[in-house]
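Re: Re: ligand-bound prediction request (bumping)

Still looking for help on this. To restate: I need the protein modeled with adenosine-5'-triphosphate bound, output as structure tokens. Inputs repeated here so nobody has to scroll up.
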Amino acid sequence: MNPMLSEAAVLDALRQVNDPDLHRDIVALGFVKDVRIDGTKVSFTIELTTPACPVKDLLKAEAEGVVLAIGATQVDIEMTARVRTTDREQTPLIPGVKHCIAIASGKGGVGKSTVSVNLALALAQTGARVGLMDADVYGPSIPLMMGVQGEQPLTANNKILPIQRHGVALMSLGFLLQEGQAVLWRGPMVAGTVKQLLEDVLWDELDYLLVDLPPGTGDAPMSLAQLVPLTGVVLVTTPHHVAANIAGKSIQLFQRLNTPLLGVVENMAGYRCPNCGTVTRVFSGMTGEELAKQYGMPFLGSIPLDPEISQSSDQGEPALVAYPDSGYGLEFRAIAGRLAAEISVRSMA
Ligand SMILES: Nc1ncnc2c1ncn2[C@@H]1O[C@H](COP(=O)(O)OP(=O)(O)OP(=O)(O)O)[C@@H](O)[C@H]1O
Ligand SMILES: [Mg+2]
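Reply:
Sorry for the wait, this slipped through. Here it is.
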């Protein structure tokens, strides 16, 4: 046997491979498992912190390269993932959920629900276990967007079972209200309903539970943050709201609530011409990226205004399902990857 090809030599070589998000090498991070050496054939597993890791292919290629460089003739790498929870106290409310992430905005109509749906789908498509909870008690829109309006969730042992759609576990007050039924909400009722949607629903084991919030920083985000230890908030904004400083104000409010801010998604950032595909910025002034920078938070990406996105939502086929290969489809997946990476960074800290 080639004396260089010991497990120690392989691990030593792999120490050259750095995770660019976590700023440490993959051996120190404990990602390398099951190293097997058979002559000059080497196999091992790399267990990442999320299946949605945006640098998965890069890490695999680098790992293969450094092991070939010490004399291996064949390198078989299995890429797996185990999502770690943050060290924050686990909640008995939703014990199987590793990360609860709220999608918020300062004002209504910026595309929170659109972003929530497509990020949930993008994460689920990587193999992550994903739930989506519609906490917009004022206007639940997830059932319509996911094409499951009018469906009645089943119950088991006094718990409500989420509705599964496109690989995502869904729950919305919309499933529990009679069609056309209007509710006049008072603050404590909002808190009670948010609690019920968490507590009375049998959420499976989930890596990520995304929570689509109603607009603003009112009762729903407050009670959610009090009920469960949120991994953090994703703030959705539009160039118009950045310009009007509405986004900045809601960032400050979340900072005051001590809720971690995972990043900014800029929606309707420019108009994509359906004929020629060119994206034109409509509003001048500060961009979502500059806003994120100003408040020292990550910028996750931007989605253009595109009629396809609203049409597909209205028809109950989210953009990522109806047009998976579109430019915005790619961008939604990139945003999901950056979000997952940001969560990994925080869980490893
Ligand atoms: N990038 C986009 N391009 C085109 N239309 C969009 C885009 N994003 C959202 N929309 C459309 O804009 C409208 C508002 O979006 P959405 O319902 O996701 O916003 P919201 O922030 O959840 O609103 P609310 O505050 O009422 O809950 C919807 O009709 C949606 O289809
Ligand atoms: Mg909404």
